[in-house]
Design brief:
This is LysR family transcriptional regulator. GO terms for molecular function: DNA-binding transcription factor activity; transcription cis-regulatory region binding. Keywords: DNA-binding, Plasmid, Transcription, Transcription regulation. Belongs to the LysR transcriptional regulatory family. Residues 1-58 form the HTH lysR-type domain. Helix 1 packs across helix 2. The chain has helices at 3-15, 18-24, 29-43, 59-83, 99-104, 106-114, 128-136, 202-214, 229-237, 247-250, 282-291; strands at residues 48-49, 56-57, 91-98, 119-126, 142-147, 160-175, 192-197, 220-226, 243-246, 257-259, 267-276. Among the domains are: 1-71, Winged helix-like DNA-binding domain superfamily/Winged helix DNA-binding domain (Arc Repressor Mutant, subunit A), CATH 1.10.10; 168-268, Periplasmic binding protein-like II (D-Maltodextrin-Binding Protein, domain 2, 3-Layer(aba) Sandwich). The protein is built from 11 helices and 11 strands. The strands form 3 sheets. Strands 3, 4, 5, 6, 9, 10 and 11 form a 7-stranded mixed β-sheet that branches. The protein is of the alpha/beta class. It is globular and about 70 Å long.
Length: 293
């Protein structure tokens, strides 16, 4: 059996869609389907009910799902442990975070979380969708991400434990030296130059909600798009346009940025951590104890 088969199966179990799961795993759909079939042949049972849409697991598939995740975690943990130099071994935790939190919050968090606990960290940064997929597939031990009631992270609370770490305010900003040129909601005759998040990103959807919740007609022209808040911040600092930034990103240049609203155009996001309740990693248990204090 190939470890890739387990990762593929968990991706299908999470998405309920072969095409999307294959894309998440960077595989062609035919190759991806063959690997799922190989796993089923090795086990001697059908794991996927292909007679319905969206795709769902068979009874055997549901039973195998939790076991597959635990097997995968154990194998990855063992590989990490065996590969380390004996004198340098520390219990490793694999963390998945969106880029904004990874660059803006994690360094300070990690100093506090790891103090006196002999932990090492393998960081897996990415967008919210990819980091959630990493947790479900067993590729990481813990996920830290943004959360909002209108854009919830759909993880089964019976399977995944959750702790709230704090909040982040997502606000529109402009560079201080050009802030007087920009005001919300913008003018149809002279739309605001908008530095936007790429379509489908979590922060992009939150900006859309902020604009919708304002109750005003917003006039802007997107002139640049990126998945990464850090990129939008740097462009904002040049005076190029307006961008919505979370606190963790804006605070690193707060003396050169000006918020353009009085909270009417802002959104408050929770920052939450998730772990699989079935993950018995000693390192994860120590880390979870630290963040739960």
């Amino acid at each position: 059996m190939d470890i890739t088969w387990l990762q593929d199966f968990l991706a299908v179990a999470e998405t309920g869609n072969f095409t999307r799961a294959a894309n998440d795993r960077n595989a062609s759909q035919p190759a991806f389907s063959r690997r799922i079939q190989a796993l089923e042949a090795w086990l001697g049972v059908a794991l996927i009910d292909r007679s319905v849409f969206p795709t769902r697991l068979t009874i055997e598939g549901e039973r195998f799902r939790d076991q597959a995740a635990q097997i995968l975690r154990n194998l990855l943990d063992l590989r990490t442990e065996l590969g380390a130099e004996p004198t340098l071994r520390r219990d490793q935790v694999r963390l998945a975070l969106p880029h904004a939190l990874a660059t803006g919050r994690l360094p300070e968090w990690w100093v506090d979380w790891s103090e006196g606990r002999a932990l090492s960290c393998q960081l897996v940064p990415g967008n919210v969708h990819d980091t959630v997929t990493s947790l479900v597939a067993g590729d990481v031990d813990m996920l830290v991400c943004f959360h909002h009631a209108q854009q919830p992270i759909h993880l089964d609370p019976d399977v995944y434990e959750r702790v709230e770490l704090g909040t982040e305010k997502l606000k529109p900003y402009a560079a201080r030296h050009v802030a007087e040129k920009f005001s919300l909601p913008g003018d149809p005759s002279a739309p605001l130059p908008l530095l936007a998040y790429s379509s489908g990103t979590y922060l992009g959807r939150m900006v859309d909600l902020a604009i919708e919740s304002s109750g005003q007609s917003f006039s802007a022209t997107p002139i640049f798009k990126s998945d990464m808040a850090d990129v939008l911040r740097e462009l904002t600092l040049t005076g190029t346009g307006v961008a919505w930034l979370p606190d963790c990103t804006a605070s690193r240049a707060e003396e050169r940025l000006v918020a353009l609203d009085d909270d009417k155009w802002s959104m408050t996001l929770s920052v939450v951590a998730y772990r699989d309740r079935n993950n018995g990693s000693r390192a994860l248990n120590r880390l979870w104890s630290a963040i739960s204090q």
